[in-house]
Amino acid sequence: MKVLGISGSPTKNSNTDTLIKTILEATGAQTEFIKLSEIKVGPCIACMKCVRTNECAINDDFKWLSKKVMEADALVIGSSTFYGAASAFMKAFIERLYSKRHVKLLTRGKIAATVAVGVAAEKMVAEWLANALRAGGMEIVGSMTAKGTPCCFVCGPGETCNYTVWNAYSKELTGMDIGVAEAYRDYLELLPDNKPYAHGSARILKKHRSVADEPAVMDEAQRIGEAIKKKMEGL
Q1: Which of 9, 51, 164, 174 could form a disulfide with 16 if both were Cys (CB 3.0 to 4.6 A apart)?
Q2: Residue extent(s) of CATH 3.40.50.360 domains in the chain
Q3: pLDDT tens digits for the chain (235 residues)?
Q4: Each residue of 212-222: b (16+ CB within 10 Å) or e?
């Protein structure tokens, strides 16, 4: 049995990578991990040349990657979130999978799991990824999310920037409490004079958030890997 893990996070050794690799290891199967930011997979150009052949006509790394997808019994995909959506790397990959869907639905019956890591929209991204794979006839046996490191923690001027991610997702701007402040309580302190999109004022307590330090998150990744293993054993 083969399990293929694909990460849409461009960050080196990212939380997304860690969770995908943890799931892969827990399957006990033959596995392979691929990071989309290290290869070339562009978006679908809607040429429709794949309708009868089920082969994408674009000459890039999807040609060999799609073969690995077809050889795999299970697929674990994950993405960091950008502007409330999956990364462009992952979006392009999902679009290109459409070539396998035409007429024959060639990915039908594969087992799949999804991972999304973000600040506020990770649940929506995990659901989108799962729905995209379901459209390809795959069976989702697990879908998980985790909080990651906001880019504003490491960019440099995050403590005084007016337009940080925590201000963008603030109640003042969105009209609702998305829970960013509570989720990052041990990592970020918003100071009394912080005014979203007017005056940035915060203290970053920890610059990096690692899923490896969160037992409940790692346990969930382990559980999903074991679920994939159990499902494959029943095939």
Answers
A1: 9
A2: 2-148+209-233
A3: 999 999 999 999 999 999 999 999 999 999 999 999 999 999 999 999 999 999 999 999 999 999 999 999 999 999 999 999 999 999 999 999 999 999 999 999 999 999 999 999 999 999 999 999 999 999 999 999 999 999 999 999 999 999 999 999 999 999 999 899 899 999 999 999 999 999 999 999 999 999 999 999 999 999 999 999 999 998 7
A4: eeeeebbebbe
- Are 134 and 140 spatial neighbours (Cβ–Cβ below 8 Å)? yes
For residue 203, give every residue at least 6 positions away whose Cβ sits within 8 Å of its Cβ, in sequence order, or none.
Answer: 159, 188, 189, 191
CATH 3.30.420.10 fits 2-148+209-233, yes or no: no
Q: What's the full length of the chain, in residues?
A: 235
Distance, CA of 91 to CA of 8 (rounded, Å): 8
Q: Distance between CA atoms of 19 and 82, rounded to whole angstroms?
A: 18
